[in-house]
Amino acid sequence: MTEVWLKVSGGAEHSEKMVSFLNHFDKLLVEQGKRLEKIGKIPTVAESGGDIKLLNISSRNDLKELEREVSLGNCTAAMVTVRDSGGQALAVEASRMGAKYVVVSCPDWKVIPWENLVSKIKGRSLLMAEVSKKQEAELALGALELGVDGLVVESSNIEEAIVIAERAKSAQKVEIELRPAKVRNAKQVGMGLRACVDTCDYLSEGEGLLLGVQSSLLFLVEGEVHENPHVEPRPFRVNAGAVSNYVLAPGGVTRYLSELRAGEKVIIASRTGVREAVVGRVKIEKRPLVLVEAEFQGRLGKVILQDAETIRLVSPAGSISISELVDGSEVLVRHETGGRHFGQRVEAEKIDER
Asked: HEC profile for 286-329?
């Protein structure tokens, strides 16, 4: 789980102001040389009086104090400013000495130090990266694909801090339960605009986008990953069907395919889990379309796709071309209750989408 800490300067007045938004954060990190009275049940990381002992590591001599604290059985967080390879070496050594957390501040270069430290620290200590903007948080969480273990954000810009915390948490909340639905109909509906979503990643067999006419029942449409005698695979692509189809995006929101732009993100789903992918291109062309209808728990869901043999729906055991669908064929769908308002789920709302 990605932790998000709020870095605070201390003081009673500051403490009172923070109470209303503490639920967004996992811990408070008190700036060096400052004190902060305990606020509720949220753990604190501080040089003195905290739940976790904070130690500033700026030279090898500071490592001796860390070693002593660890030997006493104290939970420790080593804070290191990384400006060059020397700072990276101190962070790695702090991890080797048993610091539970290694908090790094990278005032100059960020991505390369984060990647180097992820490769050397992750799995031994929890690596926390100080960030000030959402874009920096995205880079830190994606370092070497594994990402840092957590983020530290400044309380001086609390609005941005909350945005970062919510983004980090939403990435963890995406849980998809796929259920088998039975195909009841597949019929040609004529020409229309369809969208191919080209991602900045390769998809594997069984991976694809969750798409549908109704947001309450989304079909798992597989990427173009299979060999065939006529065209080369495009493992980065999902032929996603009608531009009016919904597609599931990060944070559990749905988007219309017509809205997607390069640089935005979508959810890639499979039978075993989900991940995010960046959109590289959305290619829209007029093609013959087919309407697929499938039943789940008495509810009929629909998706409009291009009428071509290469378009496949993921099934419980593999995938099936839309040209091979018959009444009773099983395909995987994501079901939810409620409705949507501008892509956001509204649990209690009842919507009739036909």
From this structure: EEEEEEEEEEECCEEEEEEEECCCCCEEECCCCEEEHHHCCCCC
pLDDT tens track for 266-323: 999 999 989 999 999 999 999 999 999 999 999 999 999 999 999 999 999 999 999 9
Domain count, the chain: 2
What CA dihedral angle connects 279, 281, 286 and 287, to 10 degrees?
A: -60
pTM of the predicted structure, to 2 decimals: 0.68
**Are residues 236 and 130 both part of a single domain?**
no
End position of a domain, from candidates 150, 173, 196: 173
Q: What is the pLDDT of residues 231-259, one digit of tens each?
A: 899 999 999 999 999 999 988 899 999 99
Give a yes or no: residue 352 inside a domain. no
* Mean confidence (pLDDT) of the chain: 89
Cβ-count burial 198-208 (b if 16+ within 10 Å, e if not):
bbeeebeebbb
Q: Measure the CA–CA gap between 239 and 216, rounded to whole angstroms.
A: 21
Q: Are residues 19 and 66 in the same domain?
A: yes
Q: Which two tokens stand for residue 27?
A: 């811990």
Using CA atoms, how far apart are residues 296 and 298, in angstroms rounded to an integer?
5
Quick check: 352 pLDDT over 70? no
Its domain, for residue 117, covers 3-173
CB half-sphere exposure, 71, CA atoms < 13 A: 6
Of 165, 125, 170, 132, which is closest to residue 148 (Cα–Cα)?
125
